[in-house]
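User: I'm preparing a small set of examples for a lab meeting where we compare how different chains pack in three dimensions. I only have the primary sequence for this one, and I'd like the structure in token form so I can line it up with the others. Please keep the answer compact; I'll paste it straight into my notes.
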Amino acid sequence: MFSLEFAFDVKLSVDKKDKNVFNSILYCITLDQDVGEIVGNITREKDKIIYTIDTSELNGEYNGLGIGFKYYTETIRKCFDYGCTEFRSSKTRNKYSDRVWEKLKAKFYNIEKYRKQYIVSLPDKQIL
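Assistant: Understood. Below is the structure token output for the 128-residue chain.
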């Protein structure tokens, strides 16, 4: 959980019917409503379990406040807790997502950009 003027929580789940889909909801505890969502797919390649974002959305009034960075950080951390070994961005992003990914890349050592996609590898040390 993290907070600014409001208190937020990130709820991560894997679809019960389709085990290849994950969903992360940004829930505003203060307002008792969902304010963001990340949906993606889960693939398995050799010894990797890869979570890749398909779509991400944050309610417009929360753009530009630093919430996206904290939301993505918490989502990635929870995906690693679920067994993810590699987390990937969508190949198509808007300016807000690009800004968040650049901040993540600058802050954490285990993020690289390969072609049009950001890739987060399982950290050697638990810092994320």
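A couple of notes for your slides: The chain has a mean pLDDT of 87. The chain is about 20% helix and 40% strand.

User: Perfect, thanks.
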